[in-house]
Amino acid sequence: MSVRLIDMVFPGDANHHGTLFGGVGLAHLDKVAFLAASRHARRSVVTAGCERIDFAAPARIGEMVEAAGRVVRVGRTSLGVEVTLHAEALLTGERRLCTQGLFNMVALGGEGDAPALPPAPSADEPDDGWLRTAEMVFPGTTNHYGTLFGGDALKLMGKAAFVAATRHRREVVVMAATNRIDFRTPIHGGDMVELASRVKMVGRSSLAVEVQLWAEGLLTGDRRHSATAEFVMVAVDENGRPRRKEGS
Question: CA-CA distances (angstroms) from residue 19 to 26, 56, 85, 162?
């Protein structure tokens, strides 16, 4: 089962050339490697090293980057995670492979009578029509209760809606409204969050995007449906006015 992380290249993540700073790209790859390995082993894992990683193409400011990690090799306590980083132009859909490599992760607590790690999966799950992206809940995004701050949850959901709408329309889109947001269960620090988004209705210039937020305990595999929201996104022209789809 692969883990996917999608983010935008904003100026704060870029170097003086206007492209994604290599250290930020490596951080994305390390994060998806950690999530993929933790999800597979259901133990605490750490990064032991990575094999040669070559940056073949840049990711520019304003583009999306998609980092993906998949467990391809399993030993007694180690896991090899294949990672890739693609850049994607928002309006054309052009995709470029920026880099790929292999991260070596080690599962802790594997001594003695600990069960063996499960074998590497043979294939990914079939596409079910939802765009799924993952994130990790670190202390900097939690409140004084130790759970994900609601504002950060909304930020993640808004980004997922933006990506789904942009990929569907391939035009500049902005958020026009949120129809409804329901928070169901808290998300704790150390949990993985998975955002599932899909376009559920298309108008002349607007799109309604449903976003589900799921929390997953990396050590237990326990999954909780934590929030659901519906966002209205609008395609706009260079003057910020709604752009009607051709033929409408």
Answer: 14, 13, 14, 21
* CA 91, chain centre distance (Å): 20
* Residues of the chain under the 50 pLDDT cut: 248
Q: Is the pTM of this model over 0.85?
A: yes
Cα angle: 181, vertex 64, 175; to 5 degrees: 35
Q: Provide the pLDDT for residue 41.
A: 93
Q: Which helix (H) or strand (E) is 39 found in, with range?
A: helix 22-41
Neighbours of 177 (CB within 10 A): 11
112 beta partners: none
Note whether 77 and 39 are within 8 A (CB). no
Run of H or E residues at 79:
strand 78-88
pLDDT of residue 246: 63
Structural domains of the chain sorted by starting position, each given as residue range(s) with its CATH number in brackets: 3-107 (3.10.129.10), 131-235 (3.10.129.10)
